[in-house]
Specification:
Helix content: 40-55%
Number of domains: 2
Largest sheet: 10 strands, mixed
Shape: elongated
Order of helices and strands: EHEHEHEEEHEEHEHHEHEHHE
Number of helices: 10
Strand content: 15-25%
CATH topology of the largest domain: Rossmann fold
Distance between the termini: 27 Å
CATH architecture of the largest domain: 3-Layer(aba) Sandwich
């Protein structure tokens, strides 16, 4: 499933949880791993008294220094994990672009990136690079938080079975397959969650003859039937299937916490432009609320907006 993994290195710390997670996956799959670091210092571009060649020499000196630093981190891991492990350091002023260029140029299957924790609030901070990767990466992106990956743990796929849209159904199938494969790989258990909306309050107030109870039951039945039809294809234990009322950003984190999920698999449509800035999407609201790793999957046919 994942044969070539790009692990994004955090330049400000020696602890590299994305690299650790990538190596853990690689030991199970036989994948190769590249530890990838993007660096940039604007002051090196501002030295107008220097020639282009001199500025390039200074930049290369910084790249060489960080390459040596990364090699020191990777060296003990290379002996610990029996996998192919390389390092690469590039100079680029937009980390997410350099990551996506590397993915496209060298045919990676998976990007693994660690999230950062706020020192005082103890909550996860998502950087602009995180959001850009979630929206634009042409391959699955794994955001690593602090939760361990124990054996016999739970993996959770967050689906939308209430729609008849073919693209959504294909994405549901793709996410379920990946969740099952990862569960088998990690000696864990696949779980599936789907949320459905409650009765709109304004309708219940404005239309006296409206029956909110029967409406909610009808919506619930529709989603339950959709889930039964979906799970039949994949032979998933009914005890590991959740169809709950509420918003996805509430239901998915609640179920993840309830089963102590080590990983949640979500689908993201990769919305870009002004709508992404103003609205965001459900996947991003969900990610904010989870305390475990998140694997974001794009639908088949997704076109990466980043070009050389």
């Amino acid at each position: 499933m994942f044969n070539k993994i790009l692990a994004v290195i955090a330049p400000e710390t020696d602890e590299q949880k994305a690299l650790d997670r990538a190596l853990l996956i690689a030991t199970k799959t036989g994948a190769s791993v590249t530890a990838f670091l993007t660096i940039y210092d604007f002051s090196y571009e501002m030295t107008t008294m220097l020639s282009v060649d001199e500025r390039e020499t200074m930049r290369q000196a910084v790249v060489d220094d960080r390459t040596d630093w990364l090699a020191e981190i990777v060296q003990p891991l290379a002996t610990k994990y029996p996998v192919s492990l390389d390092i690469k350091v590039v100079w680029h002023n937009r980390p997410f672009e350099s990551i996506i260029y590397e993915v496209i140029d060298n045919n990676y299957d998976l990007v693994v990136k660690g999230t950062r924790e706020h020192d005082t609030l103890k909550s996860v901070i998502f950087t602009p690079t995180d959001w850009h990767l979630l929206r634009k990466s042409p391959v699955p992106t794994l955001l690593v938080k602090e939760h361990d990956w124990p054996e016999n743990g739970n993996l959770l796929a967050a689906l939308d079975v209430g729609t008849q849209d073919e693209e959504h159904q294909n994405l549901n199938n793709k996410m379920t397959k990946i969740t099952i494969e990862l569960a088998n790989l990690l000696s864990g258990y696949p779980n599936i969650v789907n949320s459905y909306p409650g009765t709109p309050v304004n309708i219940a107030i404005e239309i006296p003859e409206f029956d909110p109870t029967s409406y909610t039951e009808s919506v619930k039945k529709h989603h339950q039937e959709g889930m039964i039809e979906h799970t039949k294809k994949f032979n998933i234990d009914s005890k590991r299937v959740f169809v709950n009322e509420g918003l996805p950003e509430d239901v998915i984190p609640n179920v993840a916490q309830q089963i102590d999920a080590e990983l949640v698999v979500i689908g993201t449509v990769g919305r870009t432009g002004i709508t992404a800035a103003l609205i965001g999407n459900t996947a991003e609201h969900v990610i904010d609320s989870l305390n475990c790793d998140v694997l974001a999957i794009k639908p088949d046919g997704f076109i990466c907006p980043i070009r050389r």
